[in-house]
Design brief:
The protein is about 50% helix and about 5% strand. By secondary structure, the protein is mostly helical. It folds into 2 domains: about 80 residues, Glutaredoxin (3-Layer(aba) Sandwich); about 120 residues, Up-down Bundle (Glutathione S-transferase Yfyf (Class Pi), Chain A, domain 2), CATH 1.20.1050.10. Helix 1 links the parallel strand 1 and strand 2. Helix 7 packs across helix 8. The radius of gyration is 17 Å and the shape is globular.
């Protein structure tokens, strides 16, 4: 198994958590430095033409891409511990919570969007940060409202079982920290994130614990 990732990539963070929870250790981890633009080099474009992280190659199969798809693949090929509930409505809720992060919020924070805001729209740093913080806050507000007002919420997003929703929630909160967004108004989110981070699988996967990461952001 070959895993293409970068320490700061929140999508890579999601997959690292899933790998840790499943007890899977990739045979090779390929560092694709987003800061240096290595994702645009021909070698990686052959792996993932979209030029985003992460990507995963497992055996002789095709390259897998997009963090949610990779996590569900890992869940199907390594079913214990499960990352999705068995009951259809619960599965749909977990996927919905995860997609608030992975489909609606995080895509607006990634390097290619930030670079477009800077180089094409010529927005200064304070304006770019305002844009990013707006979408971080919108997602956290939606997550908090859903989690705080649902009887399905337990120790984790869905009862007392870790799911892909918790993985995405943790990465959203981590991204908020990177961009100096105060999560104090979201107590349910904070509670679940703190609970998750007590788990070694989450803690070891944290961006700042990866090779090449700085001491702080």
């Amino acid at each position: 198994m070959k895993f293409f990732a970068f320490w700061r990539s929140l999508a890579s963070f999601r997959v690292r958590i899933a790998l840790n929870l499943k007890g899977i250790v990739p045979d090779e981890i390929v560092d694709v430095n987003l800061v240096q633009g290595r994702q645009r080099e021909e070698a990686y474009r052959k792996v993932n033409p979209q030029m985003v992280l992460p990507a995963l190659i497992d055996g002789d199969g095709p390259v897998l891409f997009q963090s949610l798809a990779i996590m569900e693949y890992l869940d199907e090929t390594h079913p214990n511990p499960p990352l999705l509930p068995k009951e259809p409505r619960a599965r749909a809720r977990v996927r919905g919570l995860a997609q608030i992060v992975a489909c609606d919020s995080h895509p607006l924070l990634v390097p290619r969007v930030r670079e477009y805001l800077e180089h094409e729209l010529h927005l200064d740093e304070p304006t770019r940060l305002k844009f990013i913080q707006h979408w971080i806050g919108a997602a956290l507000t939606a997550l908090e409202t859903n989690l705080a007002n649902s009887k399905e919420t337990g120790r984790y997003c869905q009862g007392d079982q870790i799911t892909i929703a918790d993985i995405c929630l943790v990465t959203q909160a981590t991204g908020a920290g990177f961009y100096k967004y105060d999560t104090t108004p979201f107590p349910t989110v904070r509670r679940i994130v703190e609970t998750c981070m007590q788990n070694d699988a989450f803690a070891r996967a944290h961006p700042l614990k990866q090779p090449g990461a700085p001491a702080s952001v």
